[in-house]
């Protein structure tokens, strides 16, 4: 089974609710700041909150990421975490995270084994490690 067999994005925006927060790396901050036309420090001050001492994208009153407005308004510069969704490292730490995320994401399948989920997440996160070279 391949990753596309267990996830098919429905473009519903539920992932943009940012349950647990959408962490942004320094590279993400720089890219998004440039995209929205501000400097990284101002971006963090005005568009981020802190979670565990790390910046996360701020949420609007409706609970969604402040950059969600029926579509992702920063799509070309969206954070690595968003690009990877739902194939994120926390699933490898505990596959129960897949099932938790799937409870709010209609594009994620839960009728496959945990081993299949882990293998697909690994393939997406570490593609060269999962390929067989002949």
Tell me the Rg in angstroms: 16 Å
Distance between the termini: 21 Å
SSE sequence, one letter per element: HHHEEHHHHH
As for the number of domains, it is: 1
Strand content: 5-15%
Structural class: mainly alpha
Number of strands: 2
Quaternary state of this entry equals: single chain
Task: Give start-end ranges of low-pLDDT stretches.
Answer: none
Percent helix? 40-55%
Task: Count every helix, treating DSSP H or I runs of 4 or more residues as helices.
Answer: 8
Molecular shape = globular
Key attributes of the depicted protein:
134 residues, mainly alpha, 42% helix, 6% strand
Description:
With 134 residues, the chain is mainly alpha-helical. It has one domain (3-130). The protein has helices spanning 3-6, 26-36, 40-47, 80-84, 89-93, 96-102, 114-125, 127-130; strands at residues 48-51, 54-57. A two-stranded antiparallel ribbon has the order 1-2. Helix 2 (26-36) crosses helix 3.
Topology of helices and strands:
Layout: H1 3-6, H2 26-36, H3 40-47, E1 48-51, E2 54-57, H4 80-84, H5 89-93, H6 96-102, H7 114-125, H8 127-130
Helix pairs in contact: 2-3
In short:
With 134 residues, the protein is mostly helical. 42% of the residues lie in helices and 6% in strands.
């Amino acid at each position: 089974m391949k990753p596309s067999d267990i996830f098919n994005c429905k473009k519903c925006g539920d992932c943009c609710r940012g349950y647990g927060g959408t962490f942004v790396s320094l590279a993400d901050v720089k890219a998004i700041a440039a995209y929205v036309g501000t400097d990284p420090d101002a971006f963090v001050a005005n568009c981020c909150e802190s979670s565990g001492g790390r910046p996360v994208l701020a949420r609007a009153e409706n609970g969604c990421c402040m950059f969600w407005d029926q579509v992702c308004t920063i799509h070309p510069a969206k954070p690595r975490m968003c690009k990877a969704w739902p194939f994120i490292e926390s699933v490898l730490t505990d596959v129960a995270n897949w099932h938790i995320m799937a409870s709010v994401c209609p594009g994620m399948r839960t009728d496959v084994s945990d081993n299949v989920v882990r293998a697909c997440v690994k393939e997406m996160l570490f593609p060269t490690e999962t390929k067989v070279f002949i």
